[in-house]
Amino acid sequence: MALTGIQIFKLLPKTNCKECGVPTCLAFAMNLASGKAELDTCPYVSDEAREQLAEASAPPIRPVAVGKGVRAAKAGGETVMYRHEKTFYNPTLLAATVGSDISDAALTANLVKWNAFQFERVGLNLRPELVAVKDVNGDKAAFAKVAKKVAETSEFNVILMSENADVMKAGVEACAFKRPLMYAATDATADAFGKIALDNNLPLAIKADSIEALISLSDKLTAMGLKDLVLDSGAREIKKALEDQVAIRRAALKQGNRSLGFPTITLPSEMASNVDVESLIAAMFIAKYGGIVVLSDFAGESIFPLLLERLNIFTDPQRPMTVTEGIYEIGNPNENSPVLVTTNFALTYFIVSGEIESSNVPSWLLIKNSEGLSVLTAWAAGKFAGDDVGAFVKKCGIMDKVKHKELIIPGYAAAIAGDIEEELPGWKITVGPREAAHIPAFLRAK
Fold it and tell me: Is residue 1 predicted with pLDDT exceeding 50?
C-alpha cells in the first residue's frame, strides 16, 4: 500500500539539501506520494529507506523510456484520470509504419517526407517520434536492414513489430543502440521475447486477447525481471478498444493494480482502411489514453492536427505557456520603427509577432509579464493595467532605442490608454486593432 507524504518524510534524510530540485525534504516527500517525483533524485536516501519507499516512489503508471537521441521520449507516468485534476505529463508518442519488404528507395523517400513534418507552435517544435518496422514475411535479414536504416539515417526511434523471436532478435541486433520498443510478446512468445528484452535492456510491448489475460502476462514478465512494459489489450473494434483504454487507466490509478500500471499502445493502423479514419481514431486515443499511437502513414493534413491536439491536452492547465518579458526586435527595427506592447501569453506573442513579421514593417514588440494571461483576461485581472504598462515602458529600455514617443496598444485594451498617458507624459498612445490578423494593414497604413 502506498505511503502518505508524512510517512515518506519520516524515512528521508531531512537535510533539505535542495539537490532533488525542491526546497525541502517535506516537499520532496509530498511529490513522491503524489507520483510527481522519483526516489532516485534524492542522493542521500539510505538503502533501508529506499527499500521501504520503493512502492510509494513509483508512479501508478510507470514511465517507460522509448528510444534515444533527439526524439527520445517517455510514455506513461500519469497520475490522474482527467487533465483538469492536475496535468498529463508524457505526451502520446506517434508512429508511422513501414513493412520489412519496403524498397530502399521507398524507405528513403518516406523518411525524408516524414522528417519534414516539424511544426513551430508557441515556440515549440512539434513532430512525431517513431517509425514502426513491421515484419511481413519472416525474412530476418530484410527486417534487420530496414530497422538499421531507420535507426542510423533518421532521427526517428523504432518500434520492432514481429511475432517471430528470431526475426525480432535480428532487428534488435541491428538497432539496439536506439533502444527500440519490441512489439509484441504474447502468451506463446513471452519467454523468448522476455529474454531478448531483458538481455538488451529494452522496453517490451505485450499483447493479449483481454485485460484479464494481459494481467497474467504482465505478472509473468515482471517476475522475470522486466520493468518497462507497454500494454496492448488486443481489441481492434473501436468501442471495445476505447473501453479497454479507460479500464486499464482506471485500474492502475483508482484500484492500484500494478499489473496494469504501464503505458498502452494502440494501433489505429489496424482499425481502419485509410489514413483519414485512422486519424480520427488516433485523435480519440490521444485523449483517452494511448501512450503510443501507431498509424500506417504520416500525412501533413492529419499529423499536424494530431500534434496540435496532443499539445493542447498535454499542456499543464495550471501553468500557462509564457515568453520572457522584454523587448523583441522584429525585422531589424530602427529608431523610427513603431513600438507595440502586449502580454507574455505565448500564443498571443507568437500570433502577434507573426502578423508583424508578415507586414514587412520592422517593429519593436514589448512583452509585459502578465502571468501568462491573454490581453483581455490580463486586463480584467489587473495584470495589464495602464499604470503598470506605463511603468514597464519606462524601465524596459525602449526609450533608449527610439526617437519617437508613440506606443501602440492592443485594441482590446483601449480602456487603459488614458492611464498610460498619465504614466508616460508626452507619449501618444495609439489603440491598435482588436484582431491580430488586422495588424499588417494597420502597420502599413501608418
Answer: no
